[in-house]
Amino acid sequence: MMIGLLLGVILSAVSAVPNAARDPTALGDVETGKGETVWIAGDGKALPIVYGTRLTDNLAAKHLRDCIREMTGIEPRLVPAAGAKDVKKAIFVIADNPPDSERFTTVVRDGAVRFTGAAHHAAYDFAERELGVRQYW
Fold first, then answer.
1. CA trace torsion 70, 128, 50, 58 (10° rounding)
2. Helix axis angle, 119-129 to 55-72, nearest 10°
3. Is the predicted pLDDT of residue 126 greater than 90, yes or no?
């Protein structure tokens, strides 16, 4: 009886401990700077999202499009990089370059947010940190 009571107390104590996973890169550790403004629309229509040839780039582009649509009501069109020769300005550019393992960079240049390296990871990271939208798998 005493062992059962002791075991019940231990299990209750263990279940009371919160299961808090730590973010590997805390938001306070990310360097941010003041830079260009990124516009999502111009000339009365949404600016496009340009994506690379990998399926993961396409899926990340769709995720960003859906985030923008739900937040603003504007639906950016998706343009594959191969067909983007006439695109003068974009909201996001998910670069078509070989991923460098799981590392990535996010840079604002020429009025667009540009993701490189493991660009799809960069796009999901941006959606979570900047747009406040977390992707669950």
1. -90
2. 20
3. no
